[in-house]
Design goal:
8 strands, TIM Barrel, disordered N terminus, 8-stranded parallel barrel, alpha/beta
Length: 271
């Protein structure tokens, strides 16, 4: 647990074209008892709370007078824990789609500004693109979600058939969705597949609405889910490159590793 957090219908729903700083509730691992520890900010991104916490979470947002987005599935749950939108098994894909749909409708009902959706399936080695039906289903699903609330597609990690900037540009064009570039996932993929993470961001820049900011490499990710900070050259290059973007900058460390939190907060406050 963090020992210190510094306190310094689709009608009418829209994406604000402003530069904002936000905080993910991953910082408290969606434990509603620690909401008061989150740094004050203008945007919060709600992660995987229990349904019984909803009233307390919404009260917190009202008291902070903050906007919020929702990271699917929020208070719902997938049958296999993680979303599997490109699984070779139809039952797993349909479960993911159904939960995303319910969660998006619910998010609109409680006043969310947008939803974040993982795509494709993480750590997938099978050639799921060989079956074009799967991709067609996914595009239709994302279009449907985007009609409920603005969708931000978050890049995952280690999908052998879908991980480069051209893939995500194509998907945004087909679905009219935006991107949430997860810096940690991107760093892992750049390590696994040998590409430049800064060039990736530059290539998708016209579609970016948000960044998730924390550090990861493959070894760190297995030891510490979302480390606040790292000293790798690529991580520091990415952070420097992000400074000029007109997007939401959402810090997304987890509370199982605290080393480097001060550096992350210094960077975030200085944006």
């Amino acid at each position: 647990m963090w020992t210190f957090l510094r306190h310094k219908d689709n009608e009418g729903v829209f994406e604000k074209d402003v530069r904002r700083k936000g905080v993910s509730t991953s910082m408290i691992r969606s434990n509603e008892e620690f909401l008061h520890l989150l740094p004050p900010t203008e945007l919060y991104e709600l992660t995987f709370f229990r349904a019984r916490a909803l009233e307390k979470v919404l009260t917190f947002l009202r008291e902070r007078n903050a906007s919020f987005g929702v990271h699917l599935p929020f208070v719902f749950r997938y049958s296999k824990v993680h979303p599997l939108p490109t699984s070779l098994f139809e039952s797993e894909r349909l479960d993911t789609f159904e939960v995303n749909l319910f969660a998006s409708l619910f998010s609109r009902q409680i006043g969310a500004e947008y939803v974040v959706v993982h795509f494709p399936t993480a750590q997938q080695r099978e050639d799921w693109l060989e079956d074009r039906t799967i991709l067609h289903e996914c595009v239709e699903h994302l279009v449907k979600l985007n009609e409920i609330l603005p969708v931000r597609i978050e890049n995952v990690y280690m999908n052998d058939r879908f991980h480069n900037s051209q893939d995500y540009n194509w998907l945004c064009f087909e679905t009219n969705a935006k991107l949430c570039v997860d810096v940690g996932h991107l760093l892992i993929d750049s390590q696994i597949y040998g590409f430049d993470p800064v060039r990736f961001i530059d290539n998708v820049s016209t579609h970016v609405a948000e960044f998730h900011i924390y550090y990861a490499d493959w070894e760190t990710y297995r030891r510490c889910h979302h480390a606040p900070w790292g000293e790798s050259r690529d991580f520091l290059r990415v952070l420097d490159f992000l400074r000029d973007f007109d997007a939401d900058f959402v810090i997304e460390p987890s509370n199982d590793c605290v080393e480097g939190l001060e550096k992350l907060l210094d960077y975030w406050e200085g944006l």
